[in-house]
Amino acid sequence: MRHWSFAKGHGTGNDFVVLLDREDMLEVGEAEVRFLCNRHVGIGGDGLLRAVLAKHIVDWDGQPDLWFMDYRNADGSIAEMCGNGIRVFVRFLLQHDLATGPDVLVATRAGLKDVKLLPDGRLRAAMGPVRVADRGVRVCTADGEEFAALRVDVGNPHAVSFTDDLSHLPLHTGPSWSPLEEFPSGVNLEFATVLGERHVALRVFERGVGETQSCGTGTVAAAAAARLHTKDDQDPPVTYVVDGAGGRLHVELATDQSYLTGPAVLVAHGDVVVPEEG
Q1: Does residue 278 surpass a pLDDT of 60?
Q2: Residue 24 scores a pLDDT above 70
Q3: I want to staple 131 with a disulfide (CB 3.0 to 4.6 A). Which of 20, 51, 153, 187 is the partner?
Q4: Using one digit for the tens of pLDDT, what is the confidence trace for 138-175?
């Protein structure tokens, strides 16, 4: 049996198990991630955040002494980026004196990200440029309803569809999309309703997880897609309010950058016994 220390946190209901593994000593594979994120036999979470020094990441060629956010979905699969997760990650670093604010640089698989602690306690994460394209993607829910979707790249892949009613969507089962080759490694699926000027409501089905209370990159994707969908022609930067089941986030869309602002809370610390078989 292995005893690992952990923290548990969330950003607008999108929850994560956090592990400190400074020198890359823990053997965290798919089985371990699935166990830790299991809500019945493990700790429970939409994903796992492992804090490891960037020098130990094979494909990282930037500053070696930065903290690298090794993010895994609940099914154990690796993801490029997580907008809610990076705020929880920085909250963890700050509360454990592993970083000093208000600005914290974090290495991720989607590149270097700058996260700023605001005076009101929220965290503002630079998410990088957002690319939106209409490539004829169609999304079909479990009940057979079909939607047009915009393809959005926020460092990870998204398909954003718009509907007048979010309540009826059967997101207990993952929607399908076509053409399949558009997202060969899977995709995060967002369904959005425009509530008013630069104000959007959102539901998300995350790849490797299922429906979640919130999705940070999905929130940015939905805001960028809404800008195109509503033909918002105001010069950037523009700010969108996005409401998910877990709470409200703000997205600022600039010319070559986007920012996601919202809360991040650590709710527990403890010690978990990880079985050898994962």
Answers
A1: no
A2: yes
A3: 153
A4: 999 999 999 999 999 999 999 999 999 999 999 999 99
Residue range 231-254: mean pLDDT, rounded: 97
The Cα–Cα gap between 191 and 202 comes to 6
- State how far Cα 114 lies from the chain centre: 15
pTM greater than 0.85 (yes/no): yes
Of 49, 57, 82, 123, the catalytic one is 82
Which is catalytic among the residues 81, 107, 215, 242? 215
**For 2-126+263-274, which CATH class?**
alpha beta
90 torsion bin: left (phi>0), alpha (psi -120 to 50), beta (else) = alpha
pLDDT attached to residue 261: 98
- What distance lies between CA 194 and its chain's CA centroid? 21
Does the annotation mark 215 as catalytic? yes
- pLDDT digit string, tens, across residues 68-111: 999 999 999 999 999 999 999 999 999 999 999 899 999 999 99
Among the listed residues 23, 91, 94, the one whose alpha carbon sits nearest the alpha carbon of residue 57: 23
Catalytic: 140?
A: no
Domain ranges of the chain: 2-126+263-274, 131-256
Counting Cβ atoms within 10 Å, is residue 65 exposed (0-12), middle (13-18) or buried (19+)? Answer: exposed
Query: Is the fold of 2-126+263-274 the same as that of 131-256?
Result: yes
Give the right CATH number for 131-256 from 3.40.50.880, 3.10.310.10, 3.30.360.10, 3.40.50.150.
3.10.310.10
